[in-house]
Write a structure and sequence with these properties.
binds protoporphyrin IX containing FE, 3-stranded antiparallel β-sheet, alpha+beta, heme binding
Length: 542
């Protein structure tokens, strides 16, 4: 039937209707239209649209509570479109839908990359694997996987990790106990993570975590670069590029910090090269593994970028690993102790498990030293659970290579930026159930077998998903377990009550004002318990 015939039929039908029937029909049409509108709105929740600036004011107003805001806006709809000011080309798809994540990161991996925009924002990482795409990324990934799997490198890392814990962390905590002073756990773990990653990558423990809390130029510079990279995400790229050109504001600091890192790394690489040419024995750190084995070159724009000995490649690689490693597990540790402070029963269970695993070792002297970390299932569950609610990397970036449709029907054009919020994903009822906001390590334990439950990475993307999954997962988990075991076995950490704990907008999940805590020796706690018990039963001090 043609369109004119359809119209004539409708006209005849309407003419033959009574007023009441016609009103009912109108009402029905209205209901259908409103329902369709709400359906679309539920799927593409729209932010307030301002003239010229469009959705930017909403972002600016919520920048200090970015993660909570993503939870709020993604709660009802799972995917939203964000439009920056007119003529800036700033258009972003924001999602927390695991199906979209699976599609972009795994099943259609080749159709989505990080894109040139990401590499521009993180230009201090050069062509390192974190920002690379395509063949360059794939070659670098292969090289890195082999090195991370090397037993020599793994045992070097755990040696350095133990060194930082015994020579850095323990003295700092003991000093705080002696002085009865409050410490900032975030600062402590930030320093610890820097020492561990710097030592694993470059071979030398910089001793940033020490009783005197010394300054470190390298750390400060990297911190500035990371901070600026976050700010670059939040404004149209044209704006920060103009700032960079004119050397204004944070872009001036960025340039200076980059020079500092470049100088340090170039010196370090030259010293190692000299040792190698003189036939001296060098340590089994990551950089050394790259320098002492021959690698092949990668074609493309940066010809011979990866060739053995290429200084830019070595510098970018070293910096990429330090950048990828340090902030992530320091964030994981800080939020873990915060979650623990609110759950004494979880702490008691972790302690019980630690003692059980230690007791299973017959060698009295080595009980603590040779703790079998693989047996600490409950501790691992607690770490995973803490990172579900507080993922060290709260937001991940992707870009579509060509026009595509995500599983939820969202159309993405070529070059369109797609961000998925891991922070929001961990807090969605429809993903984790009604108790999604509760800290429950038990959700990770299989009741029947007592083993850890596996969750698909697209539901729990804390270590990323698919071929680009985090290379340092094992290292990160090992360091976190070692540090937590060392702290919980010998100290009792009491987080200062009443402090405001809120994230600061940044690339990794950091606390705005740190995490203030008091520490006591575990033995002292026992004595104190006896004293309290004596006081409560006799009403007199001991
Ligand atoms: C709790 C600890 C850690 C967490 C939660 C974590 C999380 C992540 C996430 C989410 C990504 C994807 C980021 C992106 O593509 O934008 C990533 C990538 C990466 N991570 Fe980790 N990470 C941790 C520790 C480490 C450590 C200790 C290292 C090594 C020193 C490391 C090395 C890397 C590398 C090289 C990549 C890039 C992989 C690629 O693009 O192929 N990570 N990590």
């Amino acid at each position: 039937m043609g369109l004119p015939a359809l119209f004539s039929l409708c006209f005849i039908l309407i003419r033959s209707m009574s007023i009441l029937e016609f009103s009912m029909l109108l009402l029905l049409c209205l209901v259908i239209v409103v329902n369709q509108y709400l359906k679309i709105r539920r799927q593409y929740y729209s932010l307030p649209n301002w003239p010229v600036l469009r959705n930017l004011p909403s972002l600016i107003c919520n920048i200090n509570r970015l993660n909570d805001w993503t939870v709020e806006i993604l709660n009802g709809c799972a995917t939203i479109l964000f439009n920056g000011p007119v003529f800036t080309g700033m258009e972003i798809v924001f999602t927390c839908n695991p199906q979209n994540v699976e599609y972009m990161m795994k099943t259609n991996f080749d159709e989505f990359n990080k894109g040139p925009h990401f590499a521009e924002i993180f230009d201090f990482l050069g062509n390192g694997m974190f920002v690379a795409d395509g063949e360059s990324w794939s070659e670098q990934r292969k090289m890195a996987v082999t090195r991370f799997a090397s037993k020599k490198f793994q045992s070097f890392c755990s040696e350095k990790n133990d060194e930082v814990v015994t020579e850095g962390l323990v003295p700092v905590l003991e000093d705080a106990v002696k002085r009865g002073s409050t410490i900032d756990l975030q600062e402590v773990f930030k320093r610890l993570a820097f020492d561990v990653t710097f030592a694993s990558v470059l071979g030398r423990n910089p001793g940033f975590l020490s009783v005197n809390f010394v300054e470190n130029e390298f750390f400060e510079a990297l911190d500035t670069l990371t901070r600026v990279a976050f700010l670059r995400h939040c404004i149209p790229s044209l704006w920060w590029k103009v700032m960079r050109l004119l050397g204004l504001g944070w872009e001036r600091q960025y340039k200076h910090s980059w020079r500092v890192l470049d100088r340090h790394l170039t010196e370090c690489i030259s010293a190692k090269k000299q040792d190698l040419t003189q036939g001296k024995k060098i340590s089994d750190d990551l950089l050394a593994t790259y320098m002492s084995s021959s690698t092949t070159s990668i074609g493309g724009d940066e010809e011979n970028y990866c060739i053995d000995g290429n200084e830019n490649f070595l510098r970018d690689t070293a910096l990429t690993f330090i950048f990828a490693g340090q902030d992530t597990f320091s964030s994981g540790l800080t939020w873990f102790f915060y979650m623990l402070s609110k759950s004494p029963s979880v702490e008691a269970k972790i302690l019980e498990e630690l003692k059980l695993v230690m007791d299973s070792n017959n060698n009295e002297e080595k009980k603590k030293k040779e703790l079998d970390l693989r047996k600490l299932k409950y501790l691992e569950a607690a770490i995973l659970e803490s990172m579900r609610l507080n993922p060290p990397v709260p937001i991940e970036h992707k870009s579509a290579k060509k026009k595509d449709m995500l599983p939820d029907g969202t159309i993405v054009g070529p070059g369109k930026i797609i961000l998925f919020s891991m922070f929001a994903m961990g807090r969605m009822k429809w993903i984790w159930g009604d108790d999604c906001l509760d800290f429950k390590p038990e959700r990770w334990i299989d009741i029947k077998t007592g083993n850890l439950k596996h969750e698909p990475s697209s539901k729990y993307p804390v270590f990323n998903v698919g071929p680009r999954a985090c290379l340092g997962k094992r290292m990160g988990m090992t360091v976190m377990k070692t540090v937590i075991a060392a702290v919980i076995l010998d100290f009792h950490v009491e987080v200062v009550e009443g402090q405001s704990v809120r994230p600061v907008p940044s690339i990794t999940l950091k606390m705005k004002d740190g995490l203030k805590a008091k520490t006591k020796l575990s033995v002292q706690t026992l004595e104190e318990q006896v004293r309290c018990w004596y006081l409560s039963t006799t009403g007199m001090p001991e």
